[in-house]
Design a protein that fits this description.
The protein is mostly beta strands and 205 residues long. 9% of the residues lie in helices and 60% in strands. The protein is built from three helices and twelve strands, in the order E-E-E-H-E-E-E-E-H-E-E-E-E-H-E. This is AIM24 family protein.
Amino acid sequence: MAQLRAEKRVLLADLQGTTVRAMSGSMVAYQGQVEFKSAGMGGGGGFRAAIRQRVAGESISLMECSGHGRVHLAYQAQDVTVIHVQNDTVTVESEHILAVTPDLQLDVQFAGLRGMTSGQGLATTKVMGSGQLAIVSDGPLIGLEVAPGQPLVVDPDAYVAGLGNLQMSLVSGVTWRSLVGDGSGEPFSLRFEGHGRVYIQPAER
C-alpha cells in the first residue's frame, strides 16, 4: 500500500506497486520506477462529481503517481500535514489537497466559502473512507476541537478543513477583518457545532 509522510514542507509518498493521487504539478523529485498521468477531475468522483465541479467553477486537477519508489511532493513551500482518516469524512477546501491514498473517495460538496465574499467560487471537497490525506497550509496547520455545547467560530480565510460530525453555519456581522478595513462584501464568520476537529492556517489568504 502507499504511505504518506510529511517531512518539513515536503510530502514523501512511498509506492509499492500502488497509486497515489496528487496535486498536478506538485512533484519536485522522485526515485525508482514511477509513472505519472492525469487523474482528470479529481479521480474516483464519477461523472456527476465532475459536473458539480464544473458548476462550482473549478475542477480539482490531480495526477496519478504509480509504480515502485518514492515521490517528493510540495506546493509553494507551504507546510504539509498528513491526516489519517478512518471510516470518516473530511471536508476540505480543494486547493489545500496535496495527495490522497487510493481508498479515499473524493466528491465536490459546494462552491467554496471564499466565493461568498470574494467571488472566486472555489470548490470544496468531501474526502471519504479510510486512508491518508495530505493537505498544505500557509503556516503550520492548527487543529481545534469542537465539542457539544462548545461551538467554534473561525475566520473563513483561516479555514482549511473539518473532520467529524460538524454542522457549519454562517455568522454575519462585524468581523475582525472588517475592523481593519480589509473586508469585501458582507462580513461573516464560520460557526462550527457538534463533535470533531476544525483545521485552520495561521496566515490569511
